Structure formats: C-alpha cells, structure tokens
Amino acid sequence: MSIHRAAAIAGAFEHPLRKAPDKTTAQLHAECARGALQDAGLSLSDVDGYFCAGDAPGLGALSMADYMGLRLRHIDTTDTGGSAPLVHVAHAAQAIAAGKCNVALITLAGRPRTEIANAMGSPRGSAPATPDAAFELPYRPSTLNMYALAAARHMYEFGTTSEQLAWIKVAASQHAQHNENAMLRKPVTVEEVVNSALIASPLHKLDCCVVSDGGGALIVVRPEIAKSLSRPLISVLGGGETIKGQAAGKVDLTYSGAAISGRLAFEEAKVQPRDIQYASIYDSFTITVLMQLEDLGFCKKGEGGRFVQDGNLISGVGRMPVNTDGGGLCNNHPSNRGGITKIIEAVRQLRGEAHPKVQVPNCSLALAQGTGGLLGSRHGSATLILERAQ
Amino acid sequence: MSPPPMSPALQSVVDDAATHPYWQAAAQGKLLIKRCKECSQVHFYPRALCPHCLGDTEWVESRGVGRVYSASTVQQADGNYVIAYVELDEGVTMLTNLIDAGDGVAIGARVRLSMQPAANELAIPMFSLDKGA
Questions:
Q1: What is the pLDDT of residues B92-105, one digit of tens each?
Q2: Among residues 93-112 of chain B, which lie with CB inside 8 Å of chain A?
Q3: Is the CB of residue A26 less than 8 Å away from at least one CB of chain B?
Q4: What is the ipTM, given to two decimal places?
Q5: What does the pLDDT look like over A40-95, one tens digit per residue?
Q6: Does A66 touch chain B (CB under 8 A)?
Q7: Residue-wise over A43-78: b if at least 16 C-beta within 10 A, else e?
Q8: Which of A241, A297, A243, A275 is nearest to A386 (CA)?
Q9: How far, in Å, CA of A199 to CA of A193, rounded?
Q10: Which residues pair with residue A334 across a beta bridge?
C-alpha cells in the first residue's frame, strides 16, 4: 500500500503568538486545533483521528483528546522529536488509506520561552533508564554542542566554512522581515552571524533557532472530503521516515537520516529533487539545513556550503527557496520542535498564500523535511512531498 | 594535573547492572568496551545484547588510544570544555571530553585515555593529546 495521493492536507494553522505566558499548553493545542478546523471548513465532530507527540500534556494523547472533546477511532503518538509532525502526516495518510479514519487532527504546542526549560545550551536531560545516558551525560552534551560536532566534522571533511553556514541564517532573516508574527524580523548579514558569540565551536549564537512559545495544527483528510471543501487540494505524494543513531559505535556524522527518509519519499512521490519548487528544511541550526539539503539530493554530498551561499535559498533571488516564513532560525520553533511549521509553510506556498514578497510563482510541488533529536547522536528524520492538484 | 570542573551530570552517574563493571574498571584506570560472544564484533556504548546480532556480550579492555573524530569547544561561564567523539583503535567511537586540549585540539589528532577522578571515588574516561604519537 502506498500513500501516493491517498490523503490531502485540508487545514493548516500556525498560532500567531511567540510568547504565551497567559495561556496553558493544553489551551494552545486546542486553539491550534480550532484554527486548523476553521481553515479547512470542518468542525470538531468531523475529527475521528488524532495525532500528537510525547511533549503533549498528559499520557500520550489521553489528556489532550479528552480536553478537546475528541471522539476517536484512530490514535497515533509517534515521537521522533521535532520531526514528529511530518511522521504524523504520513501515518495519517496510511490510516486514511486503510480506512481507519477520515479526518485526522495533528496538534503541537509548547511554551519553552515562558518556562525557560530545555534551552538549547543547557544540558540535555534524559528519562530514567535511557540506555545511552549513563555513557554520555558525564560529558555534558547539549542540544547545541551535539549539532556542533556534526558541523565541525563537515568542515573537516568538506571545507565548509562558517560564512557559508551564515548564509542560511541570512536567507531566513530576509524571509522573516515579511512575516509580521516572526520572532526575529531584522535582516542580518553574514558578518553579523560569524561575529555573534561563539557558543559551541564552530556554531555561533546566530546559527541557532529561536526559542518560542506557540504551536500549530494540521487537518489531513480523505481526498473525496478535500474535494468537497473550498480550499485548494494539497495532496500527499509521498513520505519517508527513519531513525539514525550511532551505528553500534561506527559513528558517521557526514550524513543525516534525511538520506534515507528523503530517498523513500522521492520514490513514493515519483518525482526528483530538481522538480521541487519550494522546500521547508528543518532549521534547528544552520548546519541542520546544509546537511539535509545534501542528503535530500538538492546538491552533492560535501557541496552544501557552496549551494547555500550567495543567497541561493532566498525566494526570488536564488534557485532553491527555503523556509520562506523565516523558519526556526527567525520565525518560530514552538515547543522546541519545528516540524509542524515546516509543513504549514509548504501548504501556504502550494496554496499561493505565502507572503507576496516570498511566494514562489505557480508553486505546485513542495517538500517538507524534519530532523528531531540530536544530529550528532540519535535523531528521527521524516520527509514529505506535497502537491497542489491542478 | 588538576581535574576539570566537576560536571553536574556526574552526580547522576547511573550505576546499575548495565554500567557497574564499566565504572568499577574506570576507577581502576581501565576503559572497557563490549564484544559479542556470538559474532565477535565490538560496539559502543556498551549493551548487554549485541547491536549487530543481539548475541550476549562480554567486557574487554580497550587500549585507550585513538583519534579525534570531531570536537567542539563549549563556552561556559564556569569554564570552557571540549566535547568530542574519539574513534578508538578497536574501531568504535565514543562520546567523551578532551582535556588539556588548548588550541592544539584538532580533528584527526591522536589521543590517549586520561582517567579523570569524579565524585564518590568514581572516574570518568576522558582523553588528552597523545604526545608520543
């Protein structure tokens, strides 16, 4: 069974807030659900499938389903960190194709900016009995330095420079200036990025994404339902997912899980990287974008630095517009997980509803890519390829 | 040689069935890795079952020499530290810290085990530049 055109994204909503001290996380989930249902033209009683990840309040989906009054016949709480919502879309399409649900709701929300917890530079906690923790936590791994290790190796292997990585932030900031909800709207220069504080070499402060409160939601439906609604039909063409770890000690930081999830998604979608008109590429850090672009086949391995420089990722300037909402680097990274915003901006582009300054003309084929967890040790990768039906 | 700043994480070192022999050996100055009794392949981090074939495993001592695979100097208000992957000559790569690294730390550099004393008479395997290499 393939999910090729088996389901459509009928509703998408990104919460406008980036700081939410007066709202609970459960409320943010529900506000995102309401926004996505309104966007689709559907109502609460239409939902029969629900997807969230391990960061949702309560045990799995139990509390959130009850809080929102959902009446369900399909539930999936797969957690691959920030890439989880991309997995959820693919799994929703599978469930729809198998007849297990008709209208799937996916929500993500969180308040790391208000709660300060889990900041990027702080030591990363682990649940008790996490088997790798005993052998790693004594060395003070953090989210940031476990991406820095991948960046350092990429520079060593391929000659990638800090200036090339900085171009990824520059592109995000050029896009974010047009997004009135973005957390960082001021355009920055390559010089400003490489002269910002070096936090974990070779990564600087401006190589890092924002820490924001907020969230997002998606509605994935059976194609016949999507056709009955007034919104453009955005079909799921293909999906791929994987988990990449340390390979029993044969650590190889030169590639990410996107090399696997991307190949699977392109095979299922029956398209090539050169066909993609817009790409949302997970941008927890600049290096994350560069490695995923290589692994997805947008350029050859090792040539990512040259590919991203000179504005090549800026809409209307370069050949490969990426993260036209400003991405996690400048716009939003709610709950320290950016996967849902990646899908939402791809939907905007395919609908022709991105900001006019960044809208890709006649965008009919887009890709969304997520990497959750730690690029330098264990991460989940998921790829989606989406199409606007003619 | 002065020990590096104590990691807060050392207070929560896990001493259980999976790790006890590892920490006991470390306190004796030895770095242990695991080898499979079935397929004979080594792996890291150590597990009770082999991640190559799910066979039972046994502890073997590493020679404690290897090469820096990647490294990052982390700026901290209470002192910088270097987090690194070191590829041991046995063919497995472990997360660790480099000590006394200074500006000489470089990917590809040869390093040698330097056991660092920790709380509760424990010791943590770290690495420093192998000046004899």
A1: 999 999 998 775 57
A2: 93-97, 107-108
A3: no
A4: 0.94
A5: 999 999 999 999 999 999 999 999 999 999 999 999 999 999 999 999 999 999 99
A6: no
A7: eeebbbbbbbbebbbeeebeebbebbebeeebbbbb
A8: A275
A9: 12
A10: A212
